[in-house]
Amino acid sequence: MDLRALQSILADLPLGSLAYFNVLDSTNAQAERWVEDGVPHLSLVVADEQTAGRGRSGRAWFTPRGAGLAFSLILRPEQIESASIPRLTGLGALAVCEVLQSKYDLQAQIKWPNDVLVGGRKLTGVLVEADWQGDEIRSAVLGIGINVAPDSVPPESEAGFPATCVETALGSPIDRWTLLREVLRVLLSRLLDIDQDEFLQAWEGNLVYQREWVQLLREGSEPVIGRLLGLRSDGSLRMSLPNGEEVFFQAGEIHLRKFDRS
Ligand code: BTN
Fold first, then answer.
1. Ligand 1 neighbourhood includes 70 CB (under 6 angstroms)
2. Cis peptide, bond prior to residue 113, ω within 30 of zero
3. pLDDT at residue 172 greater than cutoff 90
4. What is the tens place of the pLDDT at every residue in 31-71?
5. Ligand 1 atom with least separation from CA of 124
6. C-alpha 227 – ligand 1 centre gap (Å)
7. Any bridge partners for residue 63, and if so which?
8. Best mutation site among 23, 127, 255 for ligand 1, i.e. most ligand atoms within 8 A of its Cβ?
9. How far away, in angstroms, is 152 Cα from ligand 1 center?
10. Is the pLDDT of residue 259 over 90?
11. Is 78 exposed, middle or buried (0-12, 13-18, 19+ CB in 10 A)?
12. What dihedral angle (degrees, nearest 10) is formed by the CA atoms of 183, 185, 191, 196?
């Protein structure tokens, strides 16, 4: 892949500027640097390989050469309501989930807040990093990593959750760049109604573990066990505790796991 070829694949999408790298530390890091140069809303950074890909909670994201998709979209606050910022993680996960369902016939689901699973295994992670100045957002970077070919699946010792990739789930190879284009198409279209109830319903409707017992793992705190109810309008998770009390959790440094109550 090169910039010219990528420009032509993505030509019919309403993107800002486009940057392509064969190797990069992290597309989120590059997007943050690029923001400083004043690039427009919906500018996109794509890399074939990341040497310091970032995951949530300070984890690394594995992106070896030629096997996955790693890209970051820059959002400018004047173009997006700040109340919608907490929904951006859902936007990325929902776009991947819907494309895997509609174009690849895979039974993809979202593990709140940011993972896409197929067959109970993770194949996509989303990392939104916003640059706050006081209460104001200067920019937000929405980064998505998709495991496409088997080489992109991290070794078990490095994965925080059982992992897979699109090609293993499908049983056949796919064209990565077509997948990128389709995900961006859905993402940009869903971005237009991110503040609507319909968006929240679509995000919630694709959540895994609905009505099931789950546990929330938080650094330095006891796990919280409860039944997963759905989402609040800010994208926080609704759960009912064993005593029937309803509680809510913001994404933050939380990890969700299924809980076997038997
Ligand atoms: C996670 O599941 O922990 C989130 C992973 C997000 C990885 C993507 S790959 C593209 C973008 N650049 C990064 O450095 N991270 C995100």
1. yes
2. yes
3. yes
4. 999 999 999 999 999 999 999 999 988 899 999 999 999 99
5. 2
6. 28
7. 50
8. 127
9. 13
10. no
11. exposed
12. -90
- Residue matched to tokens 């807040």: 113
**Is there an atom of ligand 1 within 6 Å of 169 CB?**
no
Task: Report the alpha-carbon distance of residue 159 to residue 45 in Å, rounded.
Answer: 24
Is 203 near ligand 1, meaning CB less than 6 Å away? no
Strands 18-24 and 237-240: unpaired
- pTM over 0.85? The answer is yes
| Burial readout 101-112 (b: 16 or more C-beta within 10 A, e: otherwise) | eeebebebbbbb
> Ligand 1: which atom is nearest the Cα of residue 55?
3
CA distance 1 to 61: 21
- Nearest Cα neighbor of 87 from 184, 181, 201, 183 is 201
Q: Is 56 in the pocket of ligand 1 (CB under 6 A)?
A: yes
* 208 C-beta neighbours (distance < 10 Å), count: 19
Burial class of residue 60 (count of CB atoms within 10 Å of its CB; 0-12, 13-18, 19+): middle
Lowest-confidence region among 74-83, 105-114, 189-198? 74-83
Reference 253, options 229, 230, 220; nearest CA is 220
